[in-house]
TrEMBL record:
Coiled-coil zones: none
This protein's name: Heme-binding protein
Pfam family, one: HbpS-like
Top-rank taxon, per record: Bacteria
Organism: Novacetimonas hansenii ATCC 23769
Length: 179
């Protein structure tokens, strides 16, 4: 028990020694207030809706999920006849595109796969519960400075490449709003 208390004290001291202006990914610290950069709810919903609409125009019923800069679901639109697992899969694709797009400076889950970020050196990445390295996720970036604002994932079309194309179509339609 003493070791736990000592460890907590050391962590608290280290945290207190940090500058209040330290770097926060996709955010800004001023004093003890953190401001995060992310899309507003309306644009997130429009992106998800456009991805579902884009796939529907091709005859595919899908689910689209947008995650914010905390990795949480910000908007979800489910097509009329998608299987239950598409909800989880679309979230995991969005989460992977956001978190690993940020870490590896890539824009899609397909790019992450092609770069073999889950190869022998990073094999443990496949064991993280919310991570899914399959096509269908796109990183959302601010146009002006490339800041990562979240991710969008699509699931339900016959093949991840089709899912990703619908996500890309949504991003292209609204990219000018990523300011």
């Amino acid at each position: 028990m003493a070791l736990g208390g000592t460890m907590m004290c050391a962590v608290a001291q280290a945290a207190a020694a940090q500058s209040p202006d330290m770097h926060v990914p996709n955010g800004h610290v001023e004093g003890h207030i953190v401001t995060m950069q992310k899309l507003d709810w309306f644009l997130a919903a429009q992106l998800a809706l456009e991805a579902v609409r884009s796939c529907a125009m091709q005859g595919y019923s899908v689910t689209a999920t947008v995650v914010d800069t905390t990795g949480h679901q910000q908007a979800v639109i489910k097509g009329d006849s998608v299987p239950l697992q598409s909800l989880s899969v679309s979230y995991r694709k969005a989460y992977t595109a956001y978190s690993y797009g940020l870490a590896f400076n890539m824009n899609t889950t397909s790019e992450l796969i092609a770069a073999k970020v889950t190869g022998p050196a990073n094999g443990a990445l496949n064991t993280i519960p919310e991570v899914l390295f399959v096509p269908g996720g796109v990183t959302l970036r601010r146009v002006s400075d490339n800041t990562v604002l979240g991710g969008i994932g699509v699931s339900g079309a016959p093949g991840g490449e089709k899912d990703e194309a619908c996500a890309q179509a949504a991003v292209q339609k609204y990219k000018s709003d990523f300011r």
